[in-house]
Each structure stands twice: as structure tokens, then as C-alpha cells.
Amino acid sequence: MQNKTGEKRIGRKVLAALLWLAIWQAAAVGYGRSFVLPSPVLTCQRLAQLCTQGAFWMSCATTLLRVASGLLLACLLGFACAWAAHRSGLARDILAVPAATIRSVPVMSVILIALLAMRSAAVPVFVSFLMCFPVMYTNILQGFDSVPREYRELAKVYGIEGGRFFGRVMIPASMGYIKAGLSLCAGLSWKSTVAAEVLSSPRVSMGYHLLTAKMYVDGPSLFAWTAGIVLLSIAFEKCLKALLRRW
Amino acid sequence: MADIVLRGIRKVYEERPVFEGLDLTFKEGKITAVMGPSGLGKTTLLRILLGLEQCEGSVSGLENARVSAVFQDSRLLPWLTLRQNLELVCTAAMRPKDGGSSATERRIADALKLTELTDAAGKKPAELSGGMQRRGALARALAYDGDVFILDEPFTGLDEELKERVAGRLAARWRDQNKTVILVTHDRAEAARWADETIDLESLMRKGDAHETAL
């Protein structure tokens, strides 16, 4: 019974995807200018071509590394700041200002300001970090704040302190919030990293190739690189979720 | 170790006085049962002894003591197995007399055996029944090897036969090792069976003296 429901659901999803591909194909044929709106077939062909080139994989790997670095930095600093804010009301008040400010600053402003201050290859990592940090900080802090009093009392009575209390009690008890934050940041870090790569244009990056394709009005390449980014982003999020499921 | 002495304990909860100048002594090396009806403040008394509640008055005799506790709820950490729950408290505050990791392993194995949980050591709390969780909390207190045991209804949820076996074994062990045990219970028979002394908290708060020696 469950298998049949599962099959039905997969079938519906495939049908929905086919419907949207058909709409895209019809729009491309109707529009008639493939350099602006290429068909899905043309996009797939171009993506397949790119996959045979070493430069494509190098760009993917470099962008992936930037995304992961930004996210990792946001997590590490998020943990440190959330711990400080959880322990001290003063630290909480001080950190509330940048967390709220960064959250509402447009990503383009951050990229342009970063471009003034650092070399182009570092900008995407910094931007990804800065966009993810408030999300991670807020979620981790919420997680720490919601750790049940019973567990704290247990730790106090049995002398579970310092790193052991942090690693064996606080983090596992906050894991729901941490996972939600990481899930949000997985998509956010890709969007902000690629946007920063487009504006800062480091040679080896997916964003640089997006910009080049746009400059040469090469619609199929632009769509193929975008498809590559979307697929990598989905794979990244799935891997992250699989990793988190183990905890 | 010394007697645990409470003097002039005054505790107010939401403008309602729980204790008004309570004086109480728990004798060193004895098992003392604290009895009384629900809502009288038995758990509050234990929380004061554990340093989890602020109050007026003084508590002495626990300054340098290592305290094992069983709370009213089991409080086993759900992301750890039963064995890991025990390991966590054993390795958290190691004393020189605790020995190395093999000594800790022996204490954990012994605690699990005394509470009849050896086969459940690898299970997470969610996989254990209510009674097993209760025994798990007892095993954790045993493995921690406190000088003083503060236990809030530790045998609740255990069937009579199992309670008889486990409580009998633990009482013998505590007497053998000269531990000071403070045990909150509703069950008069339980108190009479295993405690050296019984304190009727209701009478004590009414008359000012309610110590009686158990059989």
C-alpha cells in the first residue's frame, strides 16, 4: 500500500517536471531566439559539452569550496557568538545590532563594499559567510536558549562542565535549530557566493563563466551554467542533510 | 563526611511559604526516608539540598561531598545510549580515587548489573520502558559513586518483585559503603523496609519534631 502511494507520488513529480519542460520548450520555440531563450534540449546539449571540459569541473570545485568555506566560517563564528550571547546579556545586546543589520543589508551592497576592501577571490567567501552568519547565529542562539532546564540541572549536579557540557549536552539538545539553520544557509550560501563571483569575477569560478556567457550573449551557455549551479546546490543540500541525519 | 544539617530554612514560592524556619538533620551513613503528602515540599527540600533552589537559612555537611541524584523524572539524555549516559557522568568529574578508565568501566558494569540493565546498556532512553528509565537514572547515580545519594521517588514505576530485588541490593550496598542516603517516598512500607530513619515532613512542619526510627 505504502509502495503504491510512493510510486504515485514519484509519478506525479515526473509528470510535473515534464509539464514544465514542455512549457519551457514551447516558450523557446515560440520566442524563436535561442541566444536569449534556448530550449531545454539545447541547454542539456551545452551542459553535456561543458561536462567534458576540465575547466568546468575546476570551476565547480572552486565555487563549491567557496560555498563550503563561507558556510563553515558562519557556523564556527555563529557557535562562538551564540555561546557568548547565551552566557552574557551584554554580549547578546552587543551582537543583536550586527546580526539584525547584516540581515537587512542587500547582498549587492555587501559585495560592492567587500570589493573595495579585498581581492576578488576572497569576496565570494566573505559574502557567503556574512549572509549566512546571522541565520546561523540566531538559530544556534535559539537552540541554546531552548535547552530544557532539566538538562542544565543534571549537568550542574553531576559536574558536567566546560567543553563536555557544550559538546555532550548543549549542542545535541540544540540540534533541531542548528539543522534548520544549516538547511536555510545551504541555499543562501550558493546564491550569495555565485552573485559575488559574478561581480568580483575571479577567473576560476562558476560566476565568472555566467558573466562571460552573458557578455557574449551566449544563451545556451548561460542556461547550462545556471543549470549546473542549481544541480550542484541541490546535491550540496542533500549531502548536508544526509550528514546531519547521522547526528 | 558529616551529618547534613539544615537550619532555619525558609522558602517562599509565588508568595506562598513552603518552609518557615525548617530545621532538619540527616545522619551520616544512614538511609533516611522523607515522607509526606504531595505538594508539601519534599521535592523542594531535595532541590535545596542539591543547590538548585535558593532559600534563606543554612545547609551544612554537603560542602565537599560528591552527590549522586535521582530526579523525579529520569533525565537520561535521549541522544546517548544508557551506557553513554553513565559514562558521561563518570568521566565528567573524575577524582584520583576513581582510578583509570578500566575502573570506570567496572563501576558502570556494576551499576548496570545492580539495576538489572546490563542487556539494555546499548539502548537509547526512548527504547526503554518507564521502569527501565527509572532504573537507568539509579544506575547513573550508582556509577557516579557519590558520598551522598539524594533520591526523589527512585522506585516509582517498578513492579513489586523488581523493586524488592533492586532496592534490597542497593540498600545493602549503601549500608556496606556507609553512604548517606536521602530518599523521598510516598510509600510507608518502602520507607519501613529499607530506611534506617523516617522523617514525616508534615508532622515536622506542624510540631517541629517528627523523627522516628524505622524497624
Tally the helices of chain B: 7
As for the number of domains of chain A, it is 1
Task: Strand order, main sheet of chain B: write it out.
Answer: 5-6-7-3-8-9
Counting helices, strands and paired strands, the structural category of chain B is alpha/beta
Q: N- to C-terminal separation of chain A?
A: 31 Å
Span of the ends, CA to CA of chain B = 25 Å
Specify the CATH architecture of chain A. Answer: Orthogonal Bundle
Number of strands of chain B: 9
Strand content of chain A: under 5%
Round the Cα radius of gyration of chain A to an integer and report it. 22 Å
Element order, helices and strands of chain B?
Answer: EEEHEEHHHEHEHEHE
Biggest sheet layout of chain B:
6 strands, mixed
| Poorly predicted ranges of chain A | none
> Mind telling me the CATH class of chain A?
Mainly Alpha
CATH superfamily of chain A: MetI-like
Oligomer: heterodimer
| Major sheet attributes of chain A | none
Report on the structure:
The complex is a heterodimer of chains A (about 250) and B (about 220). With about 250 residues, chain A is an all-alpha fold. Chain A has one domain (about 55-245): MetI-like fold (Orthogonal Bundle). Helices cover about 85% and strands about 0% of the residues of chain A. Chain A has 11 helices and no strands. The longest helix of chain A has about 35 residues, at about 55-85. The radius of gyration of chain A is 22 Å and the shape is globular. The two termini of chain A are about 30 Å apart. Chain B contains 7 helices and 9 strands; from the N terminus they run βββαββαααβαβαβαβ. Chain B has a 6-stranded mixed β-sheet, sandwiched between helices. Chain B has a 3-stranded antiparallel β-sheet with strand order 2-1-4, with helices on one face.
